[in-house]
Design brief:
The complex is a heterodimer of chains A (about 375) and B (about 325).
Chain A (H helix, E strand, L loop, with lengths): L10 E3 H15 L3 E5 L27 H5 L4 E3 L4 H14 L2 E5 L10 H8 L2 H4 L9 E6 L29 H4 L5 E3 L4 H13 L4 E6 L2 H4 L1 E3 L13 E4 L4 E5 L2 H14 L5 E5 L2 E3 L3 H11 L2 E5 L7 H12 L9 E4 L9 H4 L6 H13 L5
Parallel strand pairs in A: 2-3, 2-4, 4-5, 5-7, 6-7, 10-11, 10-13, 13-14
Antiparallel strand pairs in A: 1-8, 6-12, 9-11
Chain B lengths: L10 H26 L14 H8 L7 E3 L5 H7 L3 H8 L32 H16 L5 E6 L6 H12 L4 E7 L2 E2 L2 E2 H4 L8 H4 L4 E5 L3 H16 L5 E6 L18 H8 L3 H11 L5 H24 L19
Parallel strand pairs in B: 1-2, 2-3, 3-7, 6-7
Antiparallel strand pairs in B: 4-5
Classes of the chains: A alpha/beta (about 375), B alpha/beta (about 325).
Chain lengths: ~375, ~325
């Protein structure tokens, strides 16, 4: 990789990084197409001089239509079941579709195509076919006021129960689907490229609040980021905080707060929900002997409790404190900002739980 | 849409049509007998009675074209050219099956002959056919996709979304509705608003053709015109084939709990294979000896398939964990 030939360090937003990943891959491989609702916008209105009204709800696909045209950048009608199924059929027969579901809350309209079709084709057909498709799905809530800064409307804040959910556990639950959750512009680009190149269906969950807000160094040349791998985002010896997506940033904030109290926190960025990198999690627990899992999804049958159960099962001998999980409330996402602010895990809450875990004496 | 009447089918194709229709019939009658004798197969949905639909449509396709299928898929598989030995082995759960014993009757698939998979999630297959036709368009292939579905599926949203997408993108899809009058145990007159499936085609801006699905010539003529249109880039067509399944929804289902013996007898009097034999013999297109040769050969093929399936090994236990994911790209 010749990533550091630039004189200054190049920064992109999360959405710009995803956009660059898709653009570079589409230049490399003519079998890659992108489809979804308003991935361009103003479909068929070029005769009025109107094209690319949107470029996706998070503006992550802006400019792709101009470069690759209507045959490879397909605005779909509002018909998730139909176009998700078409993507599966296209993937089985030679294309490599990138499909954008506008929000994860819409998963119910096309869940069959992911859960019964894409996920299971390779297995139930005895390995004779593959379904190389990337499914991009925005998720999450702000837990704060509506944010109008950045490159377009940022959904999440105040979007209530049907436009703010996380729900990745219902995808990670299905054998055959790979599910990853980037936390930064850097890993968003690498994971997007890896997901495009993978020969099976890969879901990339993109937190709405990170789209324009998460900025960071992103090398210009294409690079991959391993699917199925967690990373140590910050090393420490007293307690492990596991974060997923935006919650990794919440964990890092909590780690800063705890550092001033003399608590040395290790933060794991789980990144891949399926397959889950159990090794990295268990190794971290061996170092710190304490675990807190922070998950923006609702608690029942969640990734947080799945990770906690694996720790209890496989790291019992090393743990010197109970495993804690911090999740969103077990309620639909509320509308009023005063309620929404208390819905998803916050850094002060994480810091409090972690410090109690370190300070208390636990009987073994 | 008006059909030109009586396209003539070449002799080779007449022989092929008869061979495929009767192979489906014999294969499934044998399978039914085996199930009744206790061979474990999992759920099986017999196609018997509807043979003219699958064969008439596939007679209009090339091997490189694709089909999507339904839960009642054995007929589609045989018509598209899947080897009956591997089919039988799959139904028996053997490692030599089309899917290496990982799919069973409800998932038989063979990509080598363009068979995109038997698919028991009603309505799902046609969306895959739309995707296949999209592949053909984007990559510039000369391949079309036929999507089989039942009258039951005509009421699920996926079908309507598939038809809308295929139509706005002018994709080479032939939507083939096998109207056998029953969705499981629910009669069509109860379930179908508007009283017509073929009329729904106009709502999606595509031609709709209704044919007698017991007459393989009619099915074939309609399919040829739909495939021609699809291949020319003019978009999809809906072909509704009026047909009948002789047995229950699944093997073991008693259809007399929701339909009458008189109705069944009436349908059997319009048997597609009898109809074909009658016509080709009356018109002197084929000789009795032609048909007898094929009958004997089919008997042999089916017995060989059963023998192959019975003598094939079961999957190794390690296969439980294989192919959950596609191989890593790296």
């Amino acid at each position: 990789m010749t990533m550091n030939t630039q004189k200054h360090i190049r920064e992109l937003t999360f959405s710009q990084a995803v956009n660059e990943a898709i653009r570079q891959e589409m230049r490399r491989d003519p079998a890659i197409i992108i489809m979804g609702e308003d991935v361009a916008g103003a479909a068929g209105r070029a005769y009025l001089g109107l094209t690319e009204a949107w470029g996706g709800p998070l503006r992550a696909t802006r400019g792709l239509f101009s470069e690759f045209g209507p045959e490879r950048v397909l605005d779909t009608p509002i018909s998730e079941m139909g176009f998700m199924g078409a993507a599966v059929g296209a993937a089985m027969t030679g294309l490599r579709p990138i499909v954008e579901l506008m929000f994860v809350d819409l998963i119910g309209t096309c869940y069959d195509q992911l859960m019964n079709q894409a996920a299971k084709m390779c297995y139930m057909m005895g390995g004779q076919i593959h379904v190389p498709m990337l499914i991009r799905i925005p998720y999450g809530t702000h837990g704060g006021p509506y944010d109008t800064s950045g490159g377009g409307p940022v959904y999440g804040g105040g979007a209530a129960a049907q436009h703010s959910q996380t729900l990745y556990s219902v995808l990670a639950h299905i054998p055959g689907l790979k599910v990853v959750v980037p936390s930064s512009a850097y890993n968003a680009k690498g994971l997007t490229i890896s997901a495009i190149r993978d020969d099976g269906p890969v879901v990339v969950m993109e937190h709405k609040a990170l789209g324009s807000a998460a900025r960071g160094h992103v090398p210009e040349d294409p690079y991959t980021f391993p699917l199925g791998r967690a990373v140590v985002a910050r090393s420490g010896k007293d307690v492990t905080l596991c974060g997923i997506g935006r919650m990794t940033l919440v964990c890092l904030e909590a780690a800063d707060m705890l550092a001033s109290d003399g608590i040395d926190v290790e933060v794991l960025d789980i990144i891949s929900l399926a397959p889950l990198d159990e090794t990295t999690i268990l190794e971290s627990i061996k170092r710190t002997r304490r675990l807190v899992v922070v998950d923006e999804d609702t608690p029942t049958a969640s990734m947080a409790r799945d990770i906690a159960a694996r720790a209890a099962d496989k790291a019992f001998d090393w743990l010197i404190a109970p495993v804690k999980t911090i999740t969103s409330e077990n309620t639909p996402v509320p509308f009023a900002s005063v309620l929404e602010a208390h819905y998803a895990p916050r850094s002060d809450q994480v810091a409090l739980v972690a410090s109690e875990l370190v300070r208390n004496k636990w009987r073994r | 849409m008006q059909l030109e009447t009586k396209k003539s089918m070449p002799r080779e194709q007449l022989l092929w049509v008869y061979q495929r229709m009767t192979l489906i019939r014999i294969f499934e009658e044998k399978l039914r007998e085996l199930i009744q004798s206790g061979v474990p197969t999992g759920p099986v949905h017999l196609y018997i009675g509807e043979e003219a639909v699958a064969v008439g449509v596939c007679a209009a396709l090339k091997q490189s074209d694709w089909i999507s299928s339904t839960h009642r898929g054995h007929g589609h598989c045989i018509a598209k050219g899947v080897d009956v030995r591997n089919m039988m082995a799959e139904i028996f759960g053997k490692s030599t099956g089309t899917n290496h014993g990982k799919g069973g009757s409800m998932h038989i698939t063979d990509f080598r002959v363009g068979m995109l998979g038997v698919n028991p999630i009603v309505g799902s297959g046609p969306t895959h056919a739309v995707g296949a036709a999209l592949t053909s368009k984007v990559l510039g292939y000369d391949r079309v996709a036929a999507a089989f579905f039942g009258d039951g599926a005509s009421n699920i949203g996926a079908i309507h979304e598939a038809m809308n997408l295929a139509s706005i993108w002018k994709l080479g899809v032939v939507f083939v509705c096998e109207n056998n009058f029953y969705a499981d145990a629910t009669p069509i007159e109860y379930a179908l608003a508007g009283g017509s499936i073929v009329n729904r085609a106009s709502a999606y801006g595509m031609p709709g053709i209704r044919v007698d699905g017991q007459d393989v010539f009619e099915v074939w003529e309609a399919a040829v015109s739909a495939v021609t249109r699809a291949r020319a880039g003019q978009g999809p067509t809906l072909v509704e084939c009026m047909t009948y399944r002789y047995y229950g929804h699944h093997q073991g289902d008693d259809p007399l709990r929701y339909r009458t013996a008189e109705e069944e007898e009436g349908a059997r009097r319009r048997d597609c294979i009898d109809h074909f034999r009658g016509r080709v013999l009356t018109e002197g297109l084929l000789k009795v000896s032609d048909l007898e040769t094929i009958d004997a050969e089919n008997q042999r093929l089916v017995l060989e398939a059963v023998e192959f399936a019975e003598s094939s090994p079961l999957p190794e236990q390690a296969e439980l964990h294989s192919d959950v994911y596609s191989p890593d790209f790296s």
